[in-house]
Write a structure and sequence with these properties.
Elements: H1 11-21, H2 24-39, H3 48-72, H4 87-90, H5 98-117, H6 120-141, H7 148-152, H8 154-167, H9 173-196, H10 198-204, H11 209-213, H12 215-232, H13 243-265, H14 269-295
Helix pairs in contact: 2-3, 2-8, 2-14, 3-5, 3-6, 5-6, 6-8, 8-9, 9-12, 9-14, 12-13, 13-14
Length: 296
């Protein structure tokens, strides 16, 4: 029987394709989010082995969810310019059931490692992060409702809690506040991208917010969501974080609000992508400031 796993004459091409399938860049962001949750936890420090386990468990579980997302969407990815060159869409990697064994095997391995090396709560939140992206978002919601990314965006929140509970199963106020920030961050972040690629999503039959209500109303919603997000990003200050965190949240929030306001006034592809990149900068500043403030 012919194997469904990737075989290519160029090992470099295969490695690049596999890295693309597993969405490792997104996995790194999710892992950074978990480490921020660990940093703001009031629990004891992890051993080096536990820290490595947490990092790899979150990264691998996120990667497995990303791979499942591409596996499941191999039929619609060719319809979108942003995703048409993904390995399953082009046939660079053959779509077949063997990949499901790999994907779910990696997810099970990551959750089991978190359970053994850390605790059941860290394992549960590691699993929930992957489950919400792979199943809740990709399978249940993405092709059915514009609320897809609202609930699917909980993947980042679960990552914060995975990191926090790795040190202390009793979740404190700061990790919960940071998880809430991640929940509010995902919609304006992704809706900005959806405006830039609205025609793609319409062609693929995916009811992202700009497809459903149009670019103008979507941009207004992004601006309102960004204001709510930035306001919520100051909540950790009420529970112990200090001046360093305030500076990061203030600078990042100002940048994101500025770009969201410009998008609300002019819904061009350029302003949408500028807002999208501003959201990434805002999240990076918030998480980095939280880690520095809590630990240094």
């Amino acid at each position: 029987m012919e194997s469904t796993l990737p075989t290519k004459r160029s090992s470099g091409l295969t490695l690049r394709a596999i890295a693309g399938v597993f969405k490792l860049r997104i996995g790194v962001v999710i892992t950074f989010t978990a480490l921020a949750g660990l940093a703001v936890s009031s629990g004891p420090s992890l051993s080096l082995a536990q820290l490595v386990t947490l990092t790899l468990a979150v990264l691998i579980s996120s990667a497995s969810a990303g791979a499942f997302n591409q596996y499941y969407e191999h039929d619609t990815d060719p319809l979108m310019s942003r995703t048409k060159n993904r390995p399953f869409a082009t046939g660079e990697i053959k779509h077949g059931p063997a990949w499901l064994v790999v994907i779910f095997g990696l997810m099970a391995l990551s959750v089991a490692a978190a359970w053994i090396a850390l605790n059941a709560w860290a394992a549960l939140f590691t699993f929930l992060g992957a489950f919400f992206y792979a199943i809740v978002y990709t399978v249940w919601l993405k092709r059915r409702t514009w609320l897809n990314i609202v609930f699917g965006g909980l993947a980042g929140s679960w990552a914060v809690l995975a990191g926090a509970t790795a040190a202390d199963p009793q979740v404190g106020a700061v990790p919960l506040a940071l998880a809430f920030v991640l929940f509010l961050w995902t919609p304006p972040h992704f809706w900005s991208l959806a405006i830039a690629f609205r025609e793609d999503y319409a062609a693929a039959g995916v009811p992202m917010l700009p497809v459903v209500v149009g670019d103008k109303r979507a941009a207004q919603t992004i601006f309102a969501s960004t204001l709510l997000l930035v306001a919520a990003s100051f909540l950790p200050l009420a529970f112990g974080l200090g001046a360093i965190y305030f500076a990061g949240a203030a600078v990042g929030g100002f940048l994101f609000i500025q770009k969201a306001w410009r998008l609300a006034r002019n819904t061009s592809r350029e302003t949408a992508m500028s807002c999208f990149h501003a959201s990434l900068a805002q999240l990076t500043l918030v998480l980095t400031a939280a880690i520095i403030d809590a630990r240094f």
